[in-house]
Design goal:
eight-stranded mixed sheet; alpha/beta; eight-stranded parallel sheet; binds N-(iminomethyl)-L-glutamic acid; TIM Barrel; 16 strands; 15 helices; 2 domains; single chain; binds fe (iii) ion; Urease, subunit C, domain 1
Length: about 425
């Protein structure tokens, strides 16, 4: 058995009360000025003041003592919403947006997601794996130790399964925990242009059963948006997915308020994502149904839109999580430190709220909280060291990653 002791760390961790943290608990953390973490075989056994922990474990044969040199130790980031599996970047499209074209205009002209669909369909599985791997390794280097990755650039059964196989392989061949989401309803593909309902039928009748049969995804997600899938089409797809045994997520009210947040509440979805334009009634309904709000401030930044109203959601008791949305279109970043900084500076979250959001609540949003999301006994020793005194450094030291070391299951991985 491997026994490791982290010493001389300023530990800051969310406190897992067995459910996502909301309301005043959104910013609930525990700190140890000079703290220590003891773990066995990658699982945390003890956390606390260094003196007390040293005493507690003095009779164990410790294999390795890691001196954190006073750096801030927090849980590894959990990124609960990404599209990191893609084949090609879309820099030219970003330039078009800088010159005034809107994201949805580009989408309507057959660019955007549909351009990523063409490149994924054209690329071999190995090639797709390598691009995805490079995105995931970059995320890991900036402290992401658990990640959700969606399909959704295949849009036919064969290519959706190809993406999901790549995502599975990322989980097997990297240190990260990877949670796969099936997002066959990310857009209506060219060959179904003008016939969205026929495509919805394909998703429901062919893709969902096949993905389920292969046991290759955990969640189902839909892009519910004007010009993509209507509320009714989204409902149909998510209900079919839920009947098949998937938990539901929904891209809701990202550009226009179409009522997606309300649909998430009505269906009892695990989370609603984006919510830049979500209205107040639907935010209240999310609170009543316990839907987690996964906020993606990098997307508001990249699309130059008003940020989601995190303060309103927290005040209403909606648990807030944070994610990168990493994708080649609406937001190209793998960096949770960047997302953290935007949440604090542009969404008005406190550093403590952003910490809980980017670790514990994000873990709940992908059903991983039993294993990750806080530095507490029984959870994996997924720990990161920050070059600063507290998580505030993530907002303060802008434009860089203050993540100095990344431990997954107690092993140094970046
Ligand atoms: O979350 N909104 C839909 N999906 C992504 C964008 C994907 C893309 O542009 O490739 C998002 O913003
Ligand atoms: Fe997304």
């Amino acid at each position: 058995m491997s026994k490791k002791l982290f010493v001389n760390a300023r530990i800051v961790t969310p406190i897992d009360k067995g459910k996502p943290s909301s309301g005043k608990d959104q910013g609930l953390v525990r700190s140890y000025e000079r703290g220590s973490v003891y773990c066995e075989d990658g699982i945390i056994k003890e956390v606390g003041d260094e003196e007390r922990i040293k005493e507690l474990v003095c009779d164990r044969d410790i294999d390795m003592v890691i001196n954190c040199e006073g750096m801030c130790l927090i849980p590894g980031f959990v990124d609960p919403h990404t599209h990191m599996c893609f084949a090609a970047r879309r820099e030219e499209e970003f330039s078009m947006r800088l010159r005034g074209a809107s994201y949805m205009e580009i989408h309507k002209r057959g660019g955007g997601i549909l351009s990523s669909v063409r490149s994924v369909r054209d690329s071999g599985e190995e090639e797709l794996f390598l691009t995805t791997l490079s995105n995931v390794e970059s995320a890991l280097s900036m402290g992401t130790t658990t990640v959700e990755i969606k399909s959704g650039y295949g849009l036919d059964t064969e290519n959706e399964l190809k993406m999901l196989r790549v995502i599975r392989r990322i989980g097997l061949e990297t240190p990260l925990d990877v949670v796969p989401t099936f997002m066959g309803a990310h857009a209506v593909p060219e060959e179904f242009r003008g016939e969205p309902d026929r495509f919805v039928d394909l998703v429901v009748e062919e893709m969902i059963p096949e993905v389920k049969k292969q046991g290759i995804a955990h969640f189902i997600d839909v892009f519910c948006e004007e010009g993509v899938f209507t509320l009714e089409q989204s409902r149909k797809i998510l209900e079919a997915g839920m009947r098949a045994g998937f938990k539901a997520k929904i891209h809701a009210d990202e550009v226009i308020d179409t009522g997606g947040a309300g649909l998430a509440a009505a269906l009892g979805a695990i989370s609603a994502e984006h919510l830049l334009a979500a209205n107040e009634n639907n935010i209240a309904s999310m609170s009543e149904s316990g839907v987690i709000a996964d906020l993606l401030p990098g997307t508001a930044y990249s699309l130059r839109k008003a940020y989601a109203r995190a303060g309103k959601m927290i005040e209403r008791g909606v648990p807030v999580g944070l994610a990168s949305d990493c994708n080649p279109g609406s937001c190209f970043t793998e960096s949770m430190p960047f997302v953290f900084g935007l949440a604090v500076m542009n969404m008005g979250m406190t550093p403590e709220e952003a910490l809980v959001a980017s670790t514990l609540n994000s873990a709940y949003a992908i059903e991983m909280a039993a294993r990750v999301g806080s530095v507490e006994p029984g959870k994996q020793a997924d720990l990161i060291l920050l070059d600063g005194d507290s998580p505030t450094i993530l907002a303060y030291h802008a434009g860089v990653s203050p993540v100095m070391a990344v431990y997954k299951l107690g092993e140094l991985v970046a």
